[in-house]
Automatic annotation (TrEMBL):
Residue ranges the record marks as coiled coil: none
Pfam families: RCC1
Protein's name in the database: RCC1 domain-containing protein 1
Stored InterPro entries: RCC1/BLIP-II, RCC1_domain-containing, Reg_chr_condens
Intervals holding RCC repeats: 168-219, 220-305, 306-339
Length: 339
């Protein structure tokens, strides 16, 4: 299995070289890999967590406030990992643990967990699902799920949760202020709630960004909903329209999708700041999606024909198109075609 990385590398990427990477994808390499094979790579903002086939965990990036660090935790029986800027959740054989990122020892000493949970011998659910519930990236680190929910897969956003059931239904809950729950409003929901707009459509994949959600149906259709500030839904973004017009100025701010501009927009233009219902997104040439993944404000979809499409926020080269532009429609990553 060959892994590729692209995007911001200034915090200590595993790729060859440590410069900020704003170009095409590059193979993941590191001198510390001595016969081990990477089986999983999960990025946070300032570091990336890697799991190897021998159960070791490698953190690469800004660790415990130290940039350009690569910290090994050898032979943990590590099976999966969920990194965030404050906490690191690790799934090991027979247990799940949460570590405080600020207190990690750069020498690779396994820290005492802030929280831990023993798991049953037969546990085989996909992380963040665990026995009788799921883990969280903030205290209390665990939430119980009712026994009636037959879960298949779960994804965690910054403030919301997306659940795929065994019969292909999608449920969401958490904060809804950016429409990321898909219930047609911006209200918070405290308990799992069915996304009614997808009724009758069997879903096979789900992913959660910071404040947006993506799902793929069994037939390969792609649905997106939530915040579209950087075009991460693949829908027309007002922010991008301003960027493309040099005579316009948009006042910066993390919640600027509805912010004032220094020019008049075409009144007939239709921009989507928040999409509170699932929207069907067309890939070029009606290509069918197979897998999806989300960053905080960008989206990636792998197709059944083996192509990769990305869109959304591209400031750090994370879209893989060799530039730092934002995109509000899916674009194929050309690097992989000759390969």
């Amino acid at each position: 299995m060959l892994w590729f990385g692209f995007g911001f590398g200034g915090f200590g990427s595993l790729r060859s070289g440590t410069e900020a990477a704003l170009s095409a994808p590059q193979p993941v390499q590191h001198h510390g890999l001595d016969g081990e094979t990477l089986t999983k790579a999960v990025p946070s903002w300032s570091y990336t967590a890697y799991v190897t086939d021998d159960g070791s965990l490698l953190l690469s990036g800004c660790i415990a406030g130290c940039p350009q660090q690569c910290v090994w935790f050898h032979h943990l029986d590590c099976q999966d990992v969920l990194p965030s800027e404050k906490y690191l959740l690790v799934l090991m054989k027979g247990r799940a643990e949460c570590w405080d990122v600020a207190h990690l020892d750069c020498a690779g000493t396994v820290p005492e967990p802030l929280w831990k949970m023993e798991l049953s011998d037969g546990h085989n659910a996909a992380f963040p699902l665990v026995d009788k519930g799921h883990v969280l990236l903030q205290p209390p680190f665990f939430r119980e799920l009712g026994p009636s929910l037959q879960t298949q897969k779960m994804a965690l956003g910054n403030e919301h949760v997306v659940l795929l059931t065994c019969d292909g239904k999608v449920l969401t809950w958490g904060a809804g202020r950016h429409g990321q729950l898909g219930h047609g409003d911006v209200e918070d929901v405290s308990a799992p709630r069915l996304v009614e707009a997808l009724h009758g459509v069997t879903m096979s994949e789900v992913a959660a960004g910071g404040w947006h959600t993506v799902a793929v149906s069994e037939s390969g259709d792609l649905y997106c909903w939530g915040w579209n500030e950087s075009g991460q839904l693949g829908l027309p973004s007002k922010t991008l329209q301003v960027e493309h017009r040099p005579d316009c100025t948009i006042f910066s701010g993390f919640s600027s999708e509805d912010g004032p501009t220094g020019c008049d927009m075409d009144e007939d233009s239709e921009f989507i700041g928040i999409q509170a219902f699932p929207a069907l997104i067309d890939l070029p040439q009606e290509i069918e999606a197979a897998k999806v993944s989300c960053g905080s404000r960008h989206t990636a979809a792998a197709t059944r024909s083996g192509e990769l499409f990305t869109w959304g926020w591209g400031k750090y080269g994370q879209l893989g198109h060799g530039d730092t532009k934002n995109l509000d429609q899916p674009k194929r990553v050309e690097f992989f075609l000759p390969e």
